[in-house]
Design a protein that fits this description.
Among the domains are: 59 residues, no CATH class; 126 residues, no CATH class. The protein is elongated, with a radius of gyration of 31 Å. Helix 1 packs antiparallel against helix 2. It is 24% helix and 34% strand. The strands form three sheets. The protein has a five-stranded antiparallel sheet with strand order 6-5-4-7-8. A five-stranded antiparallel sheet has the order 11-10-9-12-13. It has a three-stranded antiparallel sheet with strand order 1-2-3, with no helix packed on it. By secondary structure, it is of the alpha+beta class.
Length: 324
């Protein structure tokens, strides 16, 4: 069930549009806004037909240090967390390195294949068999998936002697039929070293490996550069960023993101820029553990932001205000 909720804060005079996902156990849901407060009612009805009076006040500075993971997901309308740039730098470096290795392997395979085809002799061969190879992989949800590819075995004759080889390239559906005639390239010094002489069969492996390298390398470069920029921005904010004590607006899990197969916690805080009167929302880094206990009784967190662009900010959860 999807719900769009609009709440209005009389104190800050701004409207906030929040996109909420409600799990099945919270259906049916209702909301009222007569007093400017949006309430989500959980559970069904009791024997008297009354709703369970449990609700979340979305306009309060902070609804307490409870786990919201089974209550509500706040998505649209909140600032995405500024991640620690180190993660992007490490992941980007790994992706970039893997991409460069794959590129080198692809280029090497292509050069080797081209060299072989240049010096090889050609003749005609016949597909005498199709061998099925099945690989099983598991998806992130644990389900097994099987893929079957068919590899042709080709037989050809050189100087009255019969040779055969199995192609290293398979496909599903099969690219060849049993009994089909195919061009064969073979090493004149060792006729047992033969390959199907079509461009597709000869260069498929280099294309796949090199193609993966072409994909991985720019992704790694983008992530690496992004990580370095975030790291520099965070360092600048720590040293020269404007400080403001922002009201804690929401503490809970971000169900739109998975880190190590878990939904991380995030803290959202809100403040009003005194110069422009605009209201901004800051989000903490993704957190492995529930920050509720460490924020118990605390209604504000320290936010460091760029005065020229307050949306460039970070949340310091370790700082403590003199008066919470």
């Amino acid at each position: 069930m999807i719900a769009w909720l609009i709440s209005h804060s009389a104190a800050s005079h701004f409207a906030r549009l929040t996109f909420c996902w409600l799990p099945p156990e919270s259906w049916p849901a209702s909301w009222d806004g007569e007093d400017g407060i949006v309430r989500l009612y959980r559970g069904g009805e009791n024997h008297a037909g009354d709703r369970n009076p449990q609700f979340l006040d979305l306009t309060s500075p902070w609804a307490g240090s409870r786990d919201f993971s089974h209550d509500i997901l706040l998505g649209v309308g909140h600032t995405r967390p500024m991640h620690n740039g180190r993660l992007f730098t490490i992941v980007g470096g790994i992706f970039g390195l893997i991409g460069l290795v794959l590129l080198c392997i692809g280029v090497g395979l292509a050069a080797s294949t081209a060299s072989f085809l240049t010096s090889a002799k050609q003749t005609d061969g016949t597909v005498v068999a199709l061998t099925a190879r099945t690989t099983t992989t598991r998806s992130s949800d644990g389900r097994a998936r099987s893929d079957t590819s068919w590899y042709p075995t080709v037989e050809f004759t050189v100087d009255g002697r019969r040779y055969s080889f199995q192609s290293s390239t398979g496909s599903n559906p099969p690219s060849y039929k049993k009994g089909e005639s195919v061009p064969v390239a073979y090493d004149p010094a060792d006729p047992s070293n033969g390959r199907i002489a079509s461009v597709w069969s000869a260069f498929l492996a280099p294309l796949i490996v090199g193609g993966l390298g072409v994909v991985f390398t720019p992704i790694g470069a983008v992530l690496f550069v992004k990580g370095r920029r975030i790291t520099r921005l965070r360092a600048w904010l720590w040293e020269q960023g404007q400080q403001v004590w922002a009201e804690i607006e929401h503490v809970g899990r971000d169900f739109a993101v998975r880190v190590n197969n878990r939904h991380p916690y995030v803290v959202h805080a809100m403040w009003q820029d005194e110069r422009t009167g605009r209201t901004y929302t800051a989000a903490s880094d993704y957190l492995r553990d529930d920050p509720g206990p460490r924020l118990q009784g605390q209604t504000r967190v320290l936010v460091l932001y760029d005065a020229a662009d307050p949306e460039r900010n970070l949340v310091d959860l370790d700082a403590r205000p003199s008066h919470s």
